[in-house]
TrEMBL record:
Annotated Gene Ontology cellular component terms: cytosolic large ribosomal subunit
Large ribosomal subunit protein uL11 C-terminal domain segment(s): 82-150
Keyword annotations from UniProtKB, A to Z: Methylation, Ribonucleoprotein, Ribosomal protein, RNA-binding, rRNA-binding
Post-translational events: One or more lysine residues are methylated.
Similarity section: Belongs to the universal ribosomal protein uL11 family.
Spans traversing the lipid bilayer: none
InterPro entries: Ribosomal_uL11, Ribosomal_uL11_bac-typ, Ribosomal_uL11_C, Ribosomal_uL11_C_sf, Ribosomal_uL11_CS, Ribosomal_uL11_N, Ribosomal_uL11_N_sf
Gene Ontology biological-process annotations: translation
Gene label: rplK
UniProt organism field: Termititenax aidoneus
Stated name of the protein: Large ribosomal subunit protein uL11
Length: 152
């Protein structure tokens, strides 16, 4: 029992094999790449995931929602939704299509501290920060790397 290389007995505890991380547009998961190949290589039912993901994200249409998919030894899965990437939230707040290709020279917009605080509150769970002020600084760094100027 519990020897290396042996599979658990039928009905035994399922083991976590891997975690697949994807960024998919809300409500638009389908078996095409990147979802199909990422899940297919682990023997999962791709349509089951797509239906469950689309059901849970249908109210967030238009946003990119990162997801961690936990794959188990019995070919079952669970998944956890995360908040959208900070860069996507900044682009949406400023109503711009994307950040600057040369952020130190070409600025694409300006954002206030109040907007940064709103975005930081939304991202707080996913950030490696203890307080809100540190989260605001992380989001401000993202803004600078996108060519967005932070104003007070």
């Amino acid at each position: 029992m519990g020897e290396k290389g042996k599979k658990p007995a039928a009905g035994g505890p399922r083991q976590l094999i891997t975690i697949v991380k994807l960024q998919i547009e809300a409500g638009k998961a389908n078996p095409a790449p990147p979802v199909g190949p990422a899940l297919g290589q682990h023997g999962l039912n791709i349509m089951d995931f797509c239906k469950a993901y689309n059901d849970q994200t249908k109210d967030k249409a238009g946003s990119v929602i990162p997801v961690d998919i936990f794959v188990y030894s019995d070919r079952t899965f669970t998944f956890k939704l995360k908040s959208p990437p900070a860069s996507v939230l900044v682009c949406k707040a400023l109503n711009i299509p994307k950040g600057s290709a040369v952020p130190n020279k070409n600025k694409v917009g300006k954002i206030t501290r109040a907007k940064l605080r709103e975005i930081a509150k939304q991202k707080m769970e996913g950030l490696n920060c203890y307080d809100e002020e540190a989260a605001v600084k992380v989001i401000a760094g993202t803004c600078r790397s996108m060519g967005v100027e932070v104003i007070d």
